[in-house]
Amino acid sequence: MMAHHRDERSLGNLVSDLSREMTTLVRQEVQLAKAELTQSATEAGRRVASLVVGGAVTYAGVLFLLLAVVLGL
Fold this sequence. Notes:
Elements: H1 11-71
């Protein structure tokens, strides 16, 4: 049969352990959130850069088309 082990720590020790573990958990969650935000910001920056480059290429293409129309090509 399974023997039951009774923890003999005081209520004060249990509350202290709980407080310490909750503090650690909250700190880890904050670190994770910061890392996720950094990653999201990096991805958003790449997307914006892609849109800017695409817009510039489109703009240049329109200018060349207008030039071709003006020159009668």
